Description:
single chain; alpha/beta; 13 helices; 39% helix; 20% strand; binds zinc ion
Amino acid sequence: MILLKNATFIDWQSLDFSNTNILVEEGIDNKMSFISNGEIEKHKDSEVIDCSGKIVTKSFGVGHHHVYSALSRGMGAPKKNPENFNEILEYIWWTLDKCLDKDMIEYSALTTAIACAKAGSTFTIDHHASPFAVEGSLKIIAKAFDKVGVSHLLCYEISDRDGMDIAAKGLKETESYLKNNQGLVGLHASFTVGNNTLEKAVALMNNYNSGIHVHVAEDLSDQGHCLKTYSKRVVNRLHEFGALNSSKTILGHCLHLDDSEKEIIKDSTAWVVQNMESNLNNKVGYFSGKGLGDNLMLGTDGMHSDMIQSAKFAFFAGQHADNIEYDSAYYRFRNVHHYLKSNNFKGDGENNLVVLDYASPTPLTKDNFYGHFLFGFNSAMVTDVISDGKLIVKNRIMQTVNEDEILKQSGELAKKLWKKMQG
Length: 423
Ligand SMILES: [Zn+2]
């Protein structure tokens, strides 16, 4: 057990503050409880962390990530300078993911899980692609995340973009993973998934009581392709195949939707995940939550693993085109917990906590919490992280794995990957 002494605990839902000691029990979806100073003596065998002057609250979760992009940081320019979104995919991401081998996938997952943990997230929803190393890729990622101690909801990005053989491998990998693990059925996007593959993916979703995880109208070209090829819009197409008939379904981006598509999403139980920085970086437009209902959460789209940063971007860039306010920015940041809990996914129970070292020139109270969250908080405040009751980060140092060794090895694999990409 872990004992967090002298903590200022902030309830992530009510925002109530308590000055207390917290006893955390290890195990998936296990408990935490408040204990009085008098009870501390009884638990002196626990690992004790002095949280004097620090905040303890529920740890965070990433609503949409891409392990596959971990080794891209700092790589050279692509063969052709991309002029639009489709060229960004073709010359950067689809060039990179085709070169990934099993070792690279493993180290991409290890470094991503470490980055998530150190930025305060203990749960990651990932969307993975490695077209020439499909088989077993999800197991490799799951093992790496388990080693670091970050819970996960994975999927393989099924697509026809590299031919029907690789699409079939994606379906097979998904099914073999879903047989024994919690996960989703990943699809790249409407414009790379034909009717046959879409039908099979939704059948898998239904057979395994899962959900679809797909990019939706990230760029206007996805709508253009759908209208031209199927004479309908993207959300209508996905809905007609039944992809939205699950509360586990996650629709990524949702930038270029008309009112009737928004209505379909709002009336469904599906979730939307916003990735503001990625949209800005790809110059595909601005997300707005207007008309989409309340099932909105935030992701990083593989750009980084820092959810406080994602919340800030959603809020600040959202001033341009969104109806996002102080409170709704925080709700979107925290909605991942509602998504996970309402769907009975394991690994995001109350024994997932983060310790924050926050010094402010102004008082922090329940009433002004959102202002501090958006203008004061950052991931450098994260000192300790408890995942499923296990201390995975202590005093900013990983406890479960040797971070230095992993980064050294991932650096070598990154060089190998970049060279392969030039070939
Ligand atoms: Zn994505």
